[in-house]
Write a structure and sequence with these properties.
This protein is of the alpha+beta class. The protein has 18 helices and 16 strands. Strands 2-6-7-10-1-11-12-13-14 form a 9-stranded mixed β-sheet. It has a 3-stranded antiparallel β-sheet with strand order 5-4-15, with no helix packed on it. The N and C termini lie far apart (79 Å).
Length: 498
């Protein structure tokens, strides 16, 4: 039965929303956090295991130094205080995909704490999100429920467990309560998550592919009557893995909770789940407090000691951050705010920059990635990155146009050939015979035939009426299968009219 919801505009008039986001970022290390098992996506189930990742008796964890360095870099990007001493703890709970029956995480002594991230909204407003901590932990495995609807446990007759992901290093970024969001709460949540994605990619510490589970968020929402009131009871919607889903979750929970509170009801502190198909959240289990996890220091791991010298070493390796990079490229490419926003919304900035680095103009690269290629990606339901064409290919197409070997029509056919797996742009042009016809003799003959077929048009042209010129050029293009150089055709036509 559908839940009653208050209109969003009314909900944010009556109540003050407070957000909290717990973002899990899977690190792109070669091995797991505490053992040498390989980390890769899509491997044969239960093939990337060691005694440590299975939690077998007598096996001992050894911390992955690269994962710690990645955590330090992220802490620096989030303006966190990097702790000289931090500690791993055991977080105890039973779930089938936790082979040890506890997760190794950080509790009261995290590596990174007390930071912030400034996020830019669509209208240029900067909103500061306070960060409580960014701690290191290992991931659980993956359950697949068989026999139920949409892979859900409800109605399933059995479940399969893949432990490959168990032990993969994560950083969990936990915000402080995000206050003052008002009606822009969904937009702020989405902008924050996009900013996190951009930062971890810039740092090259995570692929941040949400569809592969590299990055996901638990979305906490609570309401109170006035900003001066104590925080309300929160719900926590688990493992939302699309930006749109995060925004919709915030909006739905505000509407749902506002309706309950307006009728005198109480909000249950619980975990919930976002259902993409119905665009709703559904109740899960009553939320556990930290005490229920019985945290205690992991006796098999010594404390992490991060020296000031090592932090300085990590600072020296920090790349340009996404906001600064966007502003620089916007100025270099001469883009308006709207044009840059279109690039960001299409997730095309990296691809366009790489295409420019291969020799294309910024305008040409933007035209292809936001035009023909964006339409192709949308039609296939994939991201631009997943298309079988590279920035080098796009730059080569642009060079062929600049060299006068392709026109726009032939360039589109060339790109279609590359997408079809027929080879590089030059190979496609050769195989399909797509080069521009620049032979004066062939063009001269095609123009004569067009004149003969359209004597009335020729008379108008000779009298100085140039409007029907397109009829002649179109006939020549048809005769040459669109391969004639339009400038050459126009030159021949004008020569014959004298």
């Amino acid at each position: 039965m559908a839940e009653k919801l208050m209109k969003y505009s009314e909900a944010v008039k009556q109540f003050d929303p407070v957000l909290g986001l717990e973002t899990h970022v899977e690190l792109s290390t070669k091995t797991k956090l505490f053992c040498p098992a390989e980390v890769s996506f899509g491997g044969e189930p239960n093939s990337q295991l060691t005694p440590v990742s299975l939690g077998l008796p007598g096996s001992l964890p050894v911390v992955n130094k690269t994962a710690v360095d990645y955590a330090i870099k992220l802490g620096l990007a989030l303006h966190c205080e990097i702790a000289e001493w931090s500690q791993f703890a055991r977080k105890n709970y039973f779930y089938p995909d936790m082979p040890r029956d506890y997760q190794i995480s950080q509790y009261d002594k995290p590596t990174n704490g007390n930071g912030y991230l400034d996020v830019e909204l669509d209208d240029g407003t900067i909103f500061r999100v306070p960060i409580e901590r960014a701690h290191i932990e290992d991931d659980a495995g993956k359950n697949t429920h068989v026999g139920g609807a949409d892979g859900r446990i409800e109605g399933a007759d059995h479940s399969l467990v893949d432990y490959n992901r168990a032990g993969v290093p994560l950083i969990e970024i936990v915000t402080k309560p995000i206050e003052g969001v008002g009606e822009r709460a969904p937009e702020i949540a989405g902008a924050y998550m996009r900013a996190i994605r951009d930062i971890v990619r810039a740092l090259n510490i995570s692929h941040a592919r949400m569809e592969q589970g590299n990055m996901r968020a638990d979305v906490n929402v609570s309401l109170r009557r006035n900003p001066s009131d104590p925080f309300g009871t929160r719900s926590e919607t688990k493992n939302v893995n699309t930006f749109r889903g995060i925004e919709k979750t915030v909006q739905y929970e505000i509407r749902r909770q506002a309706q309950i509170l307006s009728e005198g009801g109480e909000i249950l502190q619980e975990t919930r789940h976002w259902d993409e198909a119905s665009q709703t959240t559904a109740g899960g289990r009553v939320k556990s407090d930290a005490d229920d996890y019985r945290y205690f220091p992991d006796p098999d791991l010594v404390m992490l000691h991060i020296t000031k010298e090592h932090i300085e070493e990590m600072k020296a390796q920090m790349p340009e951050m996404p906001r600064e990079r966007r502003n620089r490229l916007k100025a270099e490419w001469g883009l308006s705010d709207l044009q840059m926003r279109d690039i960001l919304n299409a997730d095309a900035l990296d691809l366009i920059e790489a295409t420019v680095a291969e020799g294309a103009t910024a305008a040409g690269a933007r035209k292809w990635w936001l035009g023909e290629l964006s339409r192709e990606a949308n039609a296939k339901g994939v991201t631009l990155e997943e298309l079988p064409i590279t920035p080098a290919d796009v730059a080569e197409v642009e060079k062929l146009i600049a060299d006068g070997k392709l026109n726009d029509k032939l360039a589109k056919q060339t790109v279609a050939g590359v997408l079809a797996g027929e080879g590089t742009p030059s190979e496609v042009v050769e195989k399909r015979g797509l080069k521009i016809v620049s032979d004066d003799g062939l063009i001269d003959k095609a123009v004569d035939e067009a004149f003969a077929a359209n004597p009335d048009v020729v008379e108008k042209l000779k009298s100085g009426n140039m409007k029907p010129m397109g009829v002649i050029i179109g006939a020549v293009m048809k005769a040459t299968r669109g391969q004639a150089d339009a400038k050459a055709v126009t030159k021949v036509v004008m020569g014959k009219l004298k």
